[in-house]
Amino acid sequence: MKTIRWIWVYVSKARWAIGLSMLVLVLGQSAQIMAQGSQKFLIDDVLVGKHYDKLKWVLLYFTLTYLTSYVLNWWGRYLTRMNGLCLHKHMGSSLMSVIQRTPVSSIQSGRTAKWVQYFTSDIQQVSTFVTDELPRGIQQLGGTLLLIAIIGWNSPVVLGIVTVFSVLYIAIGRYFAPIMRKQVREMQEKRGELLTKIEEGISSTREVIAFNRMAWEEKSFRGTFAIFFDRVMQNGKLANSQLLLSNSVQWIGRMAVLVFGGYSVIKGNVSIGAFVIVYQYSNQLFTNYQTVFNFAMNMSGQLAYSDRVKELFEQEKIGEGTRELRAPVKSIEFESVTFAYPGTERHVLNDLDLSLPTGRKLAIVGASGGGKSTITQLLLRFFEPSSGCIRINGIPLSDIRMTDWMGKLSVVFQEPFLLPDTIRNNLMLGRVGITDEQMIDACRSAQIHDFIESLEQGYDTVVGERGYTLSGGQRQRVAIARAMMGDPELMIMDEATSALDMETEQKLQENLDKRRAGKTTIVIAHRLSTIRNADLILVMHQGRLVEQGTHEELMAKDEAYRRLVSTMSENGAGSIGA
Ligand SMILES: Nc1ncnc2c1ncn2[C@@H]1O[C@H](COP(=O)(O)OP(=O)(O)OP(=O)(O)O)[C@@H](O)[C@H]1O
């Protein structure tokens, strides 16, 4: 019931269009039944009654009713198709915004293929059900009622026979419906797992070949496929058993109608014409009952699809925040922030108090796993603190309107994601109001313009899936240029230059420092060269801030920071804390 109420929220927006399609289909089916009825007049009045002058009226009646049914059925099908596509589009865009508000933890824990399945299969099933199968179900129901009325009027006994056998048919359907629903749900889950397996297989091709694990991969795929196959077969067996039982019941019913009808004609109780159409209508009624109950059974399966989509739509979402943030960012404060990743116990940040001065270059350093990137994730609101509060200009971050906050910052991750698209589109990411000059200027600052220009198609060169046609360092520089474009108030660089050689990095840093003067840049890095000239260096250790100051101040202190730097000097690797 809850699922139906949930679907109604979407359906109600298109209720007039869906209602119209139902009406048109019901009228179409009624016209079809009326057209069939012309046989009675043809047999009884024209052929048996020898009133040949009535032939033209019978033909006119048949032509009009048949043409009406043809036009209405065509229009009904057109409407259902159009409504289906509209609802699919509407649900798809709602799902997209649900995904964008879903905590990153849920996205990361579910596989990409699972999300693809929601879009391609589940949502399509739900919208087809609502806009196509449901109107057709109603159409069949309307036709069924009309047939019941006509048959009941002509021969209540025949109606009784058809109804008794159909009740038996219903009983079989009802028995199988819940088992079918459970099986369809399981089958859907296994299909999702199979898609995930295929996606994993394709993504890991490089590693699988490099480690000669082809046989292992194949075995694992076969295992997953076997489970899916098993569920499909189980479902097929169940559907067959149900079909066998219900078909037998129907055939016995048809024979009973034929015997009774023939007997009535011999006895002279009904005309031949009435017998012919009552027999035809009762056969049709059997089929209609079948369609209506198939629809009822299918509805259970369809509700399973809707259940899955509904669960997704109703899962936890990141609060959008309602407070405006138009003023420049003057303060970023972490107040006793404690954080553990969802599903884990360990506190990655422990009662962290942090005050990040704005308008300056800040560096966060510390041993690997100390919680540096976690700070970025919290600032991006990928996760919410387990306790404590992050405040921007004194306002809790969770209260600030997401679009206001995200409009003020940009971020570069260590492994940036590039779309399989042109370099230009990867840089622009759909943003408007950025000119080509600004784009090129950012690329110059990121030390990537000359490389892009050296490519045959320059900025219109298409990079492969995830940007595989570029090196790691080139990808990082494209991502840095992308973040610099539009000169955001706050820029976060999380290990953003780790793949660059020293010389390129140094030039890039100089450009970045010039470009970002007076703006807030947070740099998370292990390389001394990247952080040395920061206005403030924050040293993290096991989720706490243990030291802060400039490079010189911290070196003079001879504590955690100096120890990190000395490790670097000793191993000569040029990086600290890694
Ligand atoms: N999605 C996640 N789920 C569970 N634990 C995580 C997740 N991401 C990070 N962690 C854990 O949180 C801890 C802090 O990770 P974080 O990435 O913040 O460290 P870091 O200081 O940036 O490390 P590095 O310098 O190696 O990048 C690590 O122990 C890591 O294993």
Automatic annotation (TrEMBL):
Regions crossing the membrane: 59-75, 145-172
Superkingdom to which the source organism belongs: Bacteria
Keywords of this entry: ATP-binding, Cell membrane, Membrane, Nucleotide-binding, Transmembrane, Transmembrane helix, Transport
The keyword Nucleotide-binding belongs to this UniProt entry's keyword annotation: yes
PROSITE patterns assigned: ABC_TM1F, ABC_TRANSPORTER_1, ABC_TRANSPORTER_2
InterPro entries: AAA+_ATPase, ABC1_TM_dom, ABC1_TM_sf, ABC_transporter-like_ATP-bd, ABC_transporter-like_CS, P-loop_NTPase, Type_1_exporter
Domain ABC transmembrane type-1 as annotated: residue spans: 20-301
Subcellular location: Cell membrane
Source organism (scientific name): Paenibacillus hemerocallicola
Protein name per the record: ABC transporter ATP-binding protein
Residue ranges constituting the ABC transporter domain according to the UniProt record: 332-567
Cellular component GO terms held in the UniProt record: plasma membrane
Bilayer disposition of the protein: Multi-pass membrane protein
MF-aspect GO terms: ABC-type oligopeptide transporter activity; ATP binding; ATP hydrolysis activity
UniProt key word Oxidoreductase: no
Pfam families from the UniProt entry: ABC_membrane (PF00664), ABC_tran (PF00005)
